[in-house]
Amino acid sequence: MDTATGLETRELRYFVAVAEELHFGRAAERLGMAQPPLSRAISQLERRVGATLLDRTSRRVTLTEAGRVLLEEGRAALEAVEAAGRRAQRAALAGTGQASVVLTAKAGASSELLAKLLDAYAAEPGAAAVDVHLCGPGEQERLLRDGRADVALLHRPFDATAGFDTEDLVTEHQVVLLPAGHPLSLRSEMTLAEVADLPGLPLPRWPRRDGSFPDGAGPQVRDHTQVLQLIALGRACAVLPESAAATLGRDLSAVRVTDAPEVTTVIAWPAHSRSRAVAGLVQAALRL
Amino acid sequence: MDTATGLETRELRYFVAVAEELHFGRAAERLGMAQPPLSRAISQLERRVGATLLDRTSRRVTLTEAGRVLLEEGRAALEAVEAAGRRAQRAALAGTGQASVVLTAKAGASSELLAKLLDAYAAEPGAAAVDVHLCGPGEQERLLRDGRADVALLHRPFDATAGFDTEDLVTEHQVVLLPAGHPLSLRSEMTLAEVADLPGLPLPRWPRRDGSFPDGAGPQVRDHTQVLQLIALGRACAVLPESAAATLGRDLSAVRVTDAPEVTTVIAWPAHSRSRAVAGLVQAALRL
DNA sequence: GGCACCGATACCGTGGGGGTATGGACACCG
DNA sequence: CGGTGTCCATACCCCCACGGTATCGGTGCC
Fold first, then answer.
1. What is the pLDDT of residues A169-193, one digit of tens each?
2. Closest by alpha carbon to B101, among B164, B147, B160?
3. Of A83, B49, B121, B149, whose CB has the highest number of CB atoms within 10 Å?
């Protein structure tokens, strides 16, 4: 049972494609190859692992339990390999005066904290250049895992922090943002139930991990600024951390939501990271 | 810069070998191949990553910054790939009535808690078979990372928990174990400084990660039982968590050490684990 | 029963990974 | 300072295995 399997990433990539498509033909197309070699590669992989990964009839392909496990773990492993390559690539560029750390944050969130962090770190002796990568919700996790980023500002409980090392930075309440002049904007507090029932002001729909949107009435949004604009236009409302409302203009007002979960901004990095620059950023963040 | 590198695990294995040996000839031997193809494979890897990983003269091979990063990250990636294979393998065996979860613990530590945990989990409906893998200190981390284990009982602050999900189980003080009848065994407390100065009773030396032992006067030990026996023989003393002393026989006695750090026993598992059996074990542990 | 779909098998060509032989740089030694 | 030993790179070759095309065989559907 202590058999070292010695899988190749190519095999894993093939398997993940088939396991996701559940169809050899489509998977082969996606991989840019013909179907027969793919079939063979999968059977070879099965021999190597010593287990059937896919139950296949000529009509339907399904995952076995072992297959489900390998899909899950294989994806993680492939991301780790990608991460290794990319981080080495970037480490080389760092010597040439290019940016050496990539920090990722949700566009529009914690912007004040981010600005202070960058200032504080830049003031340190020996500070590396920091490349800021703003992105949509949920993307940071992937960037951190596959090596395109080194540090991230995440927001619990929205973002998954499993597998990362984290330090808590600030915890804040959430508020509902309303168009200025909305009758309820004079209230001092509201509940989530009241927010959900606001006539004519649906909550916007954020994309899921895979990019698709949940069903519902609200407008589809991908970005923080889109939300603010929609609220200003009187087409939506949104529940957000206080800090997101700190800089709101004259056309928005905020009301504290009492029963919304508190949001903690955390700084996160890959658990095994030994980078001096990342450590410096974390230190700077904790001193804020 | 968004170049998908697409490394193969073979290349990574080669690179890790060379980076560890810092010598192409020895690395080739270790890999069971000739030196020239290894040289070529490394240059190809360098082209793929787009960076020099090793500075080589005919006398000395050294790692570049990019090389150091790739060594670190590559090791983690290789372990992730191994883990994927092994866990899939075991998932297949699980269907055939063999053990489906592997739990690892330090030999001799938390044995009472471990027994209670196994009992509690086994009593649950639908409990899977649990394979217990006892091992030396520091080994569990590796077992969990490379897929030979699914859950571990770890002890903070001794074991590294970075990258795992954990739940705290119990926190305890540490005691010093002395041969029964030792003059100081009547004391109610001691300090670490006093323990270090006990004449004729040196602290044992535990192996480091790489298997080597630190310099010093104490006997070399690999195991909990070895320590207990040496103490009973009057050749050593040891600072251990209270629970390790709970079952001590007539030939040992324990004295509380006031300034030793508290030890927390935690249950840990890979962050991305979705296994039902692991979740059940964690639940059972939390209910103890 | 005919047909369309889809995965497995058979067979073939080529690229690349691995082998041996050798070159060339560098340190050490007499 | 030439000789020698060490060690990585290059040259050249071979063969396996990966990928391609053609085809078979099973399965569900009209």
1. 999 999 999 888 888 888 889 999 9
2. B147
3. B149
